[in-house]
Write a structure and sequence with these properties.
- The protein has helices at 48-56, 76-84, 136-140, 164-180, 190-194, and strands at residues 2-10, 20-26, 44-45, 62-66, 88-93, 105-108, 123-128, 153-158, 185-186.
- By secondary structure, it is of the alpha/beta class.
- It has a nine-stranded mixed beta sheet.
- The chain is built from five helices and nine strands; from the N terminus they run βββαβαβββαβαβα.
- Strand 4 (62-66), helix 2 (76-84) and strand 5 (88-93) form a beta-alpha-beta unit.
- It is globular, with a radius of gyration of 16 Å.
- The structure holds iron/sulfur cluster.
Length: 197
């Protein structure tokens, strides 16, 4: 498997913000979003067993599998092996590709395309890009079934433009939007605010 990086940190975003976790970032993505801030292209080859061994060396038993787009490489056997090793498995996906069964928590962060109809997701995390942004459009195309628990999290995450003034304007606009559309909650990239990975 092509692994971009692994590390231990706190989950910075969404429902599990603050949770200690082992991060597995797969290399490669099927989309090419102009605002992508993840350098996921480089990789080291690792077998499934090497990944499980590396994850198990650390104390957290929450694993965040991300990318790039993890669905390009994620296999049922890796999910099963991680479960056997005692992990709670969270996957962060752009929602355009199928995923293996049994994932404990699926965070879908759709970009240009909607979440595919057969995907069971637990939380939806939309990048909020400023005035005129319409996150509700992702709800129209969203399958209503969700996972075992049902879809429980609706998050808007202000886009990080790299420009402080613009970021402040986007954050203000995002908060206004949420106050008018209270189905949504704010998700901040707390790892960036804390200066951790
Ligand atoms: S889906 Fe995510 S990882 Fe892929 S290009 Fe878009 S922002 Fe980057």
């Amino acid at each position: 498997m092509r692994v971009n990086e692994t590390f231990v940190s706190l989950q910075g975003e969404g429902r599990f913000t603050g949770t200690p976790a082992f991060f597995l970032r797969f290399s490669g993505c099927n989309l090419a979003c102009p605002f992508c801030d993840t350098k996921h292209q480089s990789f080291t080859e690792m077998t499934e067993d090497e990944i499980v061994r590396e994850a198990s060396r650390h104390k957290p038993r929450h694993i965040v599998i991300t990318g790039g787009e993890p669905a390009l490489q994620l296999t049922q056997s890796l999910i099963d092996k991680l479960h056997e090793a005692g992990f709670f498995i969270q996957v962060e996906t752009n929602g355009t590709l199928p995923l293996p069964e049994g994932i404990d928590w699926v965070t879908a962060s759709p970009k240009s395309s909607p979440v595919r109809e057969d995907l069971k997701i637990d939380e939806l995390k939309i990048l909020y890009m400023g005035d005129g942004c319409d996150p509700e459009r992702f709800l129209e195309s969203l399958p209503q079934r969700g996972s075992r628990r049902g879809l429980v999290g609706f998050y808007l995450q202000p886009l990080d433009t790299g420009d402080e003034e613009r970021n402040r304007a986007i954050l203000r606009s995002c908060i206004d939007y949420i106050l008018q559309h209270p189905k949504w909650s704010l998700s901040l990239q707390t790892h960036k605010m804390l200066g951790i990975k």
